[in-house]
Amino acid sequence: MNMPKNLKDYWRRNLRYLAILLSIWFVVSYGFGILLVDQLNNIQIGGFKLGFWFAQQGSIYVFLILIFVYVRWMNRLDKEYNVDEK
């Protein structure tokens, strides 16, 4: 499949964005919610242990924030490569 160079660059950057955002989500959900839960449980916020909060709620909130970041980045990328919805 021969795509023009600019579309290859577009998809390369899109995949880089996905890799960055999914890496952040992995660190938050797996790292903070499972691996570092004991260390984070020494910190309490609002009466809840921080490790418990990340395991139960934090990774969900971070995922939602990452969705909005991805939308913003992709809108900017679409405009840069002139593939945005008019």
TrEMBL record:
Pfam families: DUF4212
Regions that span the bilayer: 15-37, 52-71
Keyword presence, Transmembrane: yes
Family matches, as InterPro entries: Na_symporter_ssu
Keyword Signal: no
Keywords linked to the UniProt accession: Membrane, Transmembrane, Transmembrane helix
Residues covered by the Sodium symporter small subunit domain: 8-84
Name of this protein: DUF4212 domain-containing protein
Organism: Fulvivirga sedimenti
